[in-house]
Input
Amino acid sequence: MASLFWRGIIILPLLFVYVNGEHFLYPKRHVGKAELAGYKGPDSLAVDGGGFYSGPLIVDDDGSTASGNAGGTTEVTVENLGKADGDNTNGNANSVESTKVAAKNGIGNGNIVEAKTTFKGSWELFVENAGVSAMHLILLPNINQALMFDATVWKISKMKLPRPPCRHVEGTNEEDCYVHSILMDVETGKIRPLRLNYDTWCSSGALDINGRLVSTGGYNNGSDTVRILDLCDTCGWEEYPGALGNGRWYATQVTLGDGRFMVFGGRDFPTYEFVPPQGQKNTVKDVVDFNFLVETHDPVENNLYPFVYLSTDGNVFIFANNRSVLLNPNTQTIIHEFPVLPNGARNYPASGSACLLPIMLKPNEDRRVIPAEVLICGGASHDAYAKADLQRPKVFLPGNTDCARLDITKRNGKWKIINMPSARLLGDMAVLPTGDVLIVNGAKTGSAGWDDAREPNLNPVLYKYQTDGTGSKFTVLNPSNIPRMYHSSFALLPDSKILIAGSNTNPGYLDDALFPTEVRVEKFSPHYLDPNLAMFRQDIIVDKSNNQVKYGKKFTVQIRGNGEIDQQKLQVTIYSPPFVTHGISMNQRLIQLGIVEFNKNVTSNTNNIILQAPMNGNIAPPGYYMLFVNYNGVPCRQSMWVQFLP
Output
């Protein structure tokens, strides 16, 4: 805590530095203002680190091996896919046809049949002023409200609290009467303010078995806080300061197969701990030293907000900087280290993005090992932050253009690397109901930090999880006209649209910066919402479907549509809503369920799908999931919330 105190003392002055203003001012509410560089808050401070730095890496001509990295051997397979589909996104002409995509461990005959479309997506402005800039975002189960919050440190937002009391600013005589946390109805846009007392700046979180958000860490008085938000019309934050054994600022929270939470890292604390039950407190004796986070610490960090995922075998995958390991959470030992991922750093402040790819289950699943793969895209060079934040004049290095994929259940796994259509850092990766991945938000040059990135990447990119072996795995989609840079976020919605929010490269709420603090909220309709495909959208009959299921049990989902259904064109997936912040989507998880039986026409145009629940919590941690029925590659009109229990 002492280091946090002195860090706070250092950053109190507002240091405004004039920067060369010869940059294109992107569309925003305040056009024509001079560019400003915000004061250098804690995000911008370099911390002298433990000295892991990967040296020059040479990829052999055959793309199969690489050498020159300290800290481990690197084995990669490099694919050059060339130009992505849809580089020209100006046309909106749509065509529809069906194509078969080879599906490993898929349903039916092993093929997923999907309608092919040239539709590149569409954007809509949903809310003009959310009140807060959504640094953190998660969709809450059942109530279908998006929780958005920023930080209390700036003592200002775009919305005042509706009534007293105001927040007392610790250590001062000031009162903060601004809103820093809201719930937004994802259908109507109606906003309900929530009060916060302990700073959530750069915090972490996950949903528990009952759908409550359990959030950990933050800044200053919030760094060792656990906070809980329940699901009801009048529920507010319950805050438990001092509940964590270490401060957790820029840490990552993961849900285990038994529903417990672990939280990894955070600035100045290369450790992890299990989140204590509500009302209880950890001490330093409950904290575990994690030398891996010391070894992966560059002089400018590059290992904060590590990518952490529960593997299907119960081990925990942790990726930091450019290295990754499997940790057994029961023995608290590292059981495997994977090859080093070349070409720069991936974690904060280099800030690439990552996701766990779809977990594919068979009917009557009996495999001992269920494959699980991670996808990591973008990031920046190891010195990108130093060049953009610490050097004058600022230098904005190009971001990474590659995506890397690894099966984390294989001990001999190798990174498979392909090139994206463009460079991206500060982006987000949304796993869609179909299993494909939407890469959205972010910039093309620079680093995370205050005023440390340029060239907004306005075009989302679709990554095809499975292909028939022809064409590109990437499709460039239609752009937004709102830059979404540092501190952007997203949520997958029940109607399969993507909620897009946030972006704040400034230490506070500034309207006259190059990239103003963004409080507008958009919705993006991906390719599968092509109006010409609407005929394929099914309706889930919720009152005729099971919405609480025990592991391994069979259950029924009833659907209604237009015309007769071909089982081979059906896909059923379940999705765990992630806690999204800083390009990391904690606990995002999509699982394709095995279809055991399909009963046609139980009534007119109505069909029953008999499914098998995941076998255990390592495949699907207990709690609430959005269940989607996709037909011909097109998601249903509204997902259904299903709770999976031991």
